[in-house]
Amino acid sequence: MKRKLFFMMVSIFVTGLLFGQENSSTVSPEIEKTIKKEINYMDRSPLFIPKDPLVAGLFSITCPGLGQIYCQRPMRGVTYFASEMGCFILASALAGTKNVEYTWTATDENGEEKELTTTETINKWDELSGLERAGVVGLIMGGVGIHIWNIMDAYHLAQDHNQRLSWLGNVDLQLGFKNDNPGLKLETSKTF
Fold it and tell me: 0.85 exceeded by the pTM?
């Protein structure tokens, strides 16, 4: 399909140069649709930099949503970050700790009554019912599941990004030696 698209584009270009006009009837609607889709993608994505799927996955391991932002999908990244953090924050609010203040009066040696207070931090987990505990565990497992999905999504987004850019070809600039003379080598390649 890509080979046909490339040769069709070249033939249209050559025909336009030779005859001074484009003959759009030679392009099938399917190919025209594919070209328009790729051009629309190019307009939305100003940088044509390949993304490394491993780096995207590592970014998402480090911080949820960072891999999606690296792949130029910031709203998707913010959504992953907010949903994962929401799960963990809600779970910690339900099963975290709370401060309890105790107040009592005591009589000292002179017969004076004094009010004494103390604050103690207790674990709310012990006070939760079985259903509430299941909810907390479910939220934690949901957060872990979202994190794993986030990593896989970042990896696949980078692969998809590179696949969309694959029709541009590869450009490689190297500094090398030929016959013991230093030189600059510009290499382009296109795979069909």
Answer: no
